Amino acid sequence: MTSLDSKTQIVVVGNGMVGHHFVEQLHQSDANVEITVLCGESRLAYDRVYLSSFFSGASADDLALTTPAQYAEWGVHVFTNALVTDIDRDNNKVTTSEGQVFSYDKLVLATGSYPFVPPIPGNEQEHCLVYRTIDDLLAIEASAAVSKVGVVVGGGLLGLEAANALKQAGLDTHVVEFAPQLMAVQLDQAGGTVLKDKIEALGVKVHTQKATQAIEAGDTCRYKMVFADGTALETDMILFSAGIRPSDQLGRKSALTLGERGGIVIDNHCVTSDPNIYAVGECALWDNKIFGLVAPGYTMARTAVSHITGGDAEFAGADMSTKLKLMGVEVGSIGDAHERTDGALSYTYLNQPEGVYKKLVVDSEQKHVLGAVLVGDTSDYDTLLQYALNKIELPEHPESLILPSSDAAPALGADALPNTASICSCLNVTKGDIVTAIEGGCCSVADVKGATKASTGCGGCAALLKNVVDNELEKRGVAVSKAICEHFDYTRQELFHIVKVNGIRTFDDLLAQHGEGLGCEICKPAVGSILASVYNDYILKASHLPLQDTNDIYLGNMQKDGTYSVVPRVPGGEITPDKLILLGEVAKEYNLYTKITGGQRIDLFGARVEHLPDIWEKLVAGGFETGHAYAKALRTVKSCVGSTWCRYGVQDSVGTAIDLENRYKGLRAPHKIKFAVSGCTRECAEAQSKDIGVIATEQGWNLYVCGNGGMKPRHADLFATDLDTKTLIKYIDRVLMFYVKTADRLQRTSVWMDNLEGGLAYLQDVVINDALGINAELEAQMDTVVEAYQCEWKTTIENPESRKRFRQFVNSNASDTNIQFVSERGQVRPATEAEKVVGKEQFIPVSVV
Amino acid sequence: MTAVQNRLTPEQAVQWHYVCKTSDLVTNSGVCALVESQQVAIFSLKINGETQIFAISNYDPIGKANVLYRGLLGSIGGAPVVASPLYKEHYFLETGLCKEHDDVSVTTYPVKLEGSNVFVGA
Ligand code: SRM
Ligand SMILES: Cc1cc2nc3c(=O)[nH]c(=O)nc-3n(C[C@H](O)[C@H](O)[C@H](O)COP(=O)(O)OP(=O)(O)OC[C@H]3O[C@@H](n4cnc5c(N)ncnc54)[C@H](O)[C@@H]3O)c2cc1C
Ligand code: SF4
Ligand code: FES
Measured between alpha carbons, how far is A665 from A625 in angstroms, rounded to an integer? Predict the structure, then answer.
């Protein structure tokens, strides 16, 4: 095909995602070709899939897939604003709107598609826009700036993305859909309903079954949309997202064969009815289908490159399954979502309160997955897709695949996938390709990514890729590194074991015997915490001090300006008036900002490092102890007022909370630990969001474990019911010590539980039935820690050497002049950089109100 | 035995300031000294059994607070570093360069010992 003496001239029309992929692939093939790219837009190819990120801060440069310099380096000639208007097939020439003429040996049409705008009278007005290019985005941004209300016409995938963009731009946003449901292509009716509920809960109004008849001048807004059912909606701007149409005008003009409803017809090699012209991407029609996704377009591009360079790749259709997040709502659709296959059967799971809907479509023999719909939770997507694509035989109870965390759910291990399984559909990488890469020497996910390009497209396959790579490496006996840092080749759990078994008592000994280098801010505090969990020595002992995070060294949390917070323990949240008065006095004396915390105690902020010992001296004298707010340790045990006062209380929740807080205070752990105790089932202490939650019953206590608030809330699991107080404490001792021994560094109990093989049932078996035979040891370990408790602040202020650490300067009693305060609502707050007075002493005096 | 980081060339004139006794330093940790109204963080590290002393500016240019002496010490590929207590960037004690940001660094200062007296050059 390629003549020897002169280079084959390849002209590519359109530099969208697919056109660019074609150029990249052809360049990499090393074929003897000269490539010219005619680009209809004013900029080179960019990532249309991530177009919406423009509204969350991405710039046009962030979205760019290439640069003029890159193309120049590849020797590719590229012209922007070069809209091709004619193809002269007899003389192999194309002409642009500027009148430039280019000759080709092979012509590649990658002209994509354009948004369909329904023929509604009034649709041509200034604030009626579409959503396809960066220029469209700029127009939308400009329009949104002078609008209050925005409507998206079309409730499909792109329409919802567009609605999200309007929402982010601060508009009162509506979606108008002709069909009775959202995303009718990918979802069934029930899935569409759940999606609608979720999206409306986010503040976007959805109007289904509305056919727009006219766009007229509005009364309260710029426009009024009039619907066929006689209703109307006022809006300032309208975004049409009612489907796409192939950009096939060039094909039509030059008499290439087109489909009945448009699209340039191609064969399995992506060749059009003219053997010298190819079509790829969204302008191409294969088997009467247009593929509106990027992955099939990329496959077409590779197929065309293969054909041009003498290869024999064929395009064989593409899977149109999709998984995406729309306004934070997870949506997935696989294969035959509408049960169109003869004899198809389905399983559905609907959880209305949480807005989760899942449908699994299987064949009549219940052997194979045909399709699936997932709304609100797509965690099963990867597994289901692999079942569908690779015709993997279903387990006995197919419904277990979509039921929430049923113990029977057979997670599809990477091992079960055949080598032909597609892992990354964007870049067409199979499990076999990954295995080959690993056999060729790759030994990490990063290596495999580099070698196969897997996971460099939409990124949706990242988790699956890691799974396959780790699995293959483990099979080959390659240890997948779980080392905590460059200084120790062990996990936290292994280090705990080493410390315990060898009786190691200092970091230096551990480093000398089992590590290298000087340590770092990852391994030092981790080892400090392990040593404390095992021995509970004074943490500022000379050998332990350098291990502690700054907060632990100064026994306070460092604030943004270098000052500290002071949080005394208030067990169970119960505090006497005298103690309240003392807190107030100390705060006044040292000019500290005071605030009630979310943990039922009082935080004093803005303490200078050199004042900490004096402040604590006064607090300790008044009966306070450290609250460990700075430590990975027990924080608070919250309580509700309970049976003593409350007319519903059935047990003394305050008393129990105080006892529990006093028992476990000072226990250092992989992460912080929080408790709460509620006096009855009304649960005013929110115990079910705590690591350890206790709720009173008529007979005793229900124990909940491994709850979490914070970044990823998790409800605690009910562990045991109607316990007497002694058994309650025994179980908590065991659960906590087992956690301390086995969890990873900085792993809250919630994450620990989620990763514990066997989950809740296993933990119950260990703690209640002593399945591992370690309960005596766990309890003894807890007793050691409880007995060794000391208030670190009391020990510190009593020791002149330790007090010396709390100085700003070794050689001066001056204070840090960069710490400055201003007054706000009658208290201090840190001065902003702009408010600071350079070199000025102390703070601007606070007006006391 | 104590080695001292002294990165001075002979021609550089330096004003030495006495700051403290070696016993005021804390092994594998830091203290801060006020030298000519500049805040200087002084670290004492035990490396292969030998104590080395480093001095850098105490001002964290990213957190914008005088806190570096309170950071955790460690090593990256063998080179000693301090991690800022605020946002955990690492500064190489020998050069003052920030590992995470090419364009950020802190001043380093020479240190010398005379008997048990510690001097910083500024
Ligand atoms: C002071 C306080 C906010 C307040 O004004 O109320 C607070 C303040 C801080 N929280 Fe908190 N949290 C406070 C209650 C909470 C709560 C509510 C509770 O305990 O009931 C939560 C959610 C519950 C939970 O943890 O499950 C909470 C979830 C977090 C998290 C996220 C933890 C997670 O697992 O996702 C962090 C970050 C971390 O620990 O890594 C955090 C970290 C922090 C830090 C330490 C951030 C930092 O490094 O500077 C804050 C410093 C406090 C200080 O300087 O004294 N704080 N924090 C509350 C102190 C409670 C106390 O008396 O000790
Ligand atoms: C907001 C949005 C979100 C999307 N999200 C996803 C997603 O999550 N997953 C997914 O798989 N797909 C998604 N898509 C679809 C995906 O972007 C397209 O499948 C892909 O861009 C198609 O590539 P293409 O090169 O065929 O067409 P395009 O990217 O449209 O490129 C065609 C280019 O050709 C130019 N052109 C047209 N006619 C001429 C001419 N006569 N002369 C010169 N140049 C011409 C056009 O100006 C355009 O630049 C999304 C699309 C949009 C708009
Ligand atoms: S929520 Fe964030 S900002 Fe507020 S106290 Fe907690 S950590 Fe600090
Ligand atoms: S599937 Fe899109 S990057 Fe792999």
Answer: 10
Name the fold adopted by B2-121: Rieske Iron-sulfur Protein (2.102.10)
Distance from the Cα of residue A12 to its chain's centroid = 38
Distance (Å, whole) CA A721 – CA A145: 58
> Are the Cβ atoms of B70 and A554 closer than 8 angstroms?
yes
Q: Is the CB of A421 under 6 A from ligand 4?
A: no
Whole-number Å distance between alpha carbons of A725 and A736 = 16
pTM confidence score: 0.54
CB B55 within 8 A of CB B109: yes
DSSP codes, A511-566? HHHHB-SS--TTHHHHHHHHHHHHH---TTSTTTGGGS-HHHHTTSEE-TTS-EEE
Q: Ligand 1: which atom is nearest the Cα of residue A630?
A: 45
* Closest-CA residue of chain A to B67: A562
Per-residue confidence at B72, pLDDT binned at 50, 70, 90? very high
Identify the three-state secondary structure at position A158.
helix
CA separation for the pair A49, A34 (Å, rounded): 29
B74 and A524: CB-CB below 8 Å? yes
State the Cα–Cα distance between residues A512 and A505, nearest whole angstrom: 12
How confident is the model at residue A78, as a pLDDT?
A: 96
Question: Three-state SS for A78?
Answer: strand
Question: Is-contact A350 A357, C-beta < 8 A?
Answer: yes
Query: Would the CB of A775 count as within 6 Å of ligand 1?
Result: no
Instruction: Give nearest CA residue, ligand 2 atom 47.
Output: A40
Query: Which is higher by pLDDT, A639 or A520?
Result: A639
Contact yes or no for A736/A664 (Cβ under 8 A): yes
B34 touches chain A (CB under 8 A): yes
| Cα–Cα distances in angstroms (integers) from residue A9 to residues A104, A275, A549, in the given order | 5, 15, 64
Ligand nearest to the CA of A385: 4
> Per-residue pLDDT averaged across A123-130, rounded?
95
> Hey, are the CB atoms on A810 and B20 less than 8 Å from each other?
yes
d(CA A117, CA A554): 65
Using the Cβ of A833 and the Cβ atoms of chain B, whether some distance falls under 8 Å is answered with yes
Please tell me whether the interface predicted TM-score (ipTM) of this complex is above 0.90: no
Which H or E run contains B31? strand B29-35
Q: List the domain boundaries for chain B.
A: 2-121
Helix (H) or strand (E) holding B118: strand B117-121
Residue A749: phi, psi to the nearest 5? -60, -30
Q: Average pLDDT of A807-830?
A: 92
Question: CA-CA distance, A216 to A767, in Å (whole number)?
Answer: 71
E strand intervals along A218-355? 223-227, 232-235, 237-240, 244-246, 264-265, 277-279, 284-285, 322-326, 329-335, 345-351
pLDDT at residue A11, rounded to an integer? 97
**Beta-carbon count within 10 A of A269 CB:** 18
Q: Do B65 and A818 touch (CB under 8 A)?
A: yes
C-alpha closest to that of A223 among A176, A186, A179, A270:
A176
pLDDT greater at residue A129 or residue A802: A129
CA angle A165, A170, A176 (to 5 degrees): 55
DSSP code per residue over A366-425:
S-SEEEEEEES--TTHHHHHHHHHTTPPP-S-GGGGTSTT-TT-----GGGS-TT-EEET
Q: How far apart are CA B118 and CA B41, in angstroms?
A: 13
Specify the 3-state DSSP secondary structure of A130. strand
pLDDT of residue A150: 97
**Contacting residues of A for B48, CB less than 8 Å apart:** none
What are A262-282's pLDDT values in tens digits?
A: 999 999 999 999 999 999 999
Which of B65, B67, B72 lies nearest to residue A524, judging by beta carbons? B72
